[in-house]
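quick one, 590 residues, struct below
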Amino acid sequence: MSFDGIVLYGIIHELQQSLLDGRISRIYQPSKNELVLFIIHNRREHKLIVSADSINCRIHLSDTVNQNPSSPPMFCMLLRKHLLGGKIISILQKGLERIVEIAITNTDEFMQPKDYKLIVEIMGKHSNIILTDFQNTIIDSVKRIGLELNRYREILPGKTYSDPPLDEKINLLSVDDDCIISMLKEASASQFTTTLSRWIIDNFAGFSGVSAQELALRARLDHRIPICQLNNRQIEQIAKVFSNLREDLLQCHFLPRVYCNINTKEPVDFWLFPMEKYNQKEYKSSNSVNEAADFFYSKKEEFVAVKTLRQSLKAEVLKHEKKLRQKLQYLKERIDNTSDLNKYKLWGELLSANLYRIKAGQSQVKLPNFYNLNEEVTIPLNEKLSPSHNAQLYFKMYKKLQATKKYVEARIKDTLMEMEYLESTLVNIEHSRSIQDLTEIQQELELQKYIKTNVPKGKMESKKELSKPLRFKSSDGNVIYVGKNNRQNDMLTFKKSKPDDIWLHAKNTPGSHVIVETQGHAASDTTLTEAAILAAYFSKGRNSSNVPVDYTLVRHVKKPSGAKPGFVIYFNQKTLYVTPDEKTVDKLSF
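---
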């Protein structure tokens, strides 16, 4: 990510225009290392996010703010005591380093003027937010650092604040072209094998690895070229790129862009200017640097939240699937133990038919099998029981095993249906792309008691209404709906569709219910094929070819009593074979 000193320069320039002379009206601390300052300027409220998170450390204006905890942390309460109602008098960046100083004037408890500085150090895992007075005495910080953690300086209440240790680097904004050319020539004449991008990072403040590589690309050079191998033409190319960047920064000619993965739409990076490094990526242009930063981090957090919840739900479902597989194995073993039931029935029948031929006290008897006249059957006997009692004993064993088999077969059927339900839930989880979609699946699993919940039973049913299903339009103008989870599949098939609409589902595999609105007219072959492609795409067979898809009228789809969400039976169906195609799916979206 490129939240480097150059990006910070653009953000600070915009903050100075938006926040100077504004007053702090509210302060929140949504998480351990993140603050939100609400600042009123020209009758408009701005939300300033200040984060000392080790991964997403940053400062920028935002339109979205995480939920505020009911009980504010101690540092938040301290800031409220000193800064609420305070006026922002300056926002400064230390050169092009990632250090910001926000000066605030306020009054103390005796209504006497008092000035403060909120210092934001954006330095990865060493990031911090520090409140000092104007004599640089530390009042407190979001991270307290003692000598046992940092021998160079202490960040503790009462200590004097000093800048973090920084390498002596050049501020690009304060040097001219001749100086840059001189530095490059001196470096190229040396024997150092340092790469070009590494040399830029080591000598110029404000550059990250990505932005240093970008400068090399703009100079049409490989960023890995050793600095000692540069010739005069290449030196001039690099110097020109530096000069152009300096002028764009000084003139504030920012063209911020956020680059996203073409397939997943996940934000990859952003910068003040278009980046040749990402010329194959999809991008979003923004009107301001703060807007680009807010979009990037909010979307990034959303993707992380989706990924985390998806993994959590998958783990829960897989855990239950594992238990069901173990249960199925046990039930199959019990079925195997009933394999002798027909033998016991035969023995009982043969003994009952031949009582006159059996003498009391025999340990076994050999009798002809009247189901197969060429075979004789040897039957063990209990010597202490009469022949009649021996026959009744075998009939009793037969009936017991028969009842066991019937009971176990029913449990196997239920277990297989439950495994089918969980497998369809896994497909829904995998295809979900938003927190709302995953939350609905989580609620479904809670209702089915696969996940424990603290919500009272009576209130679970009254949870907010399901989101709308996915909506597409065929080439012939028919509206096509696709369910996003099992509960939505039921709602779509049995409550939102009409009897003459067409229902589709990937055959013998978990997937979404698909409904084609027909308005009482016959659907064309093109519409049926496109709807079948959607049914195959939103199924477990997404990455397969020639996926069979069944279709029938909605009136021919029924839900068995007591069945899990999404489970149906259907008849009078026909089958189409299609290959899922993402381009077709995108074309049908509207």
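The CA atoms of residues 153 and 163 lie 9 Å apart.
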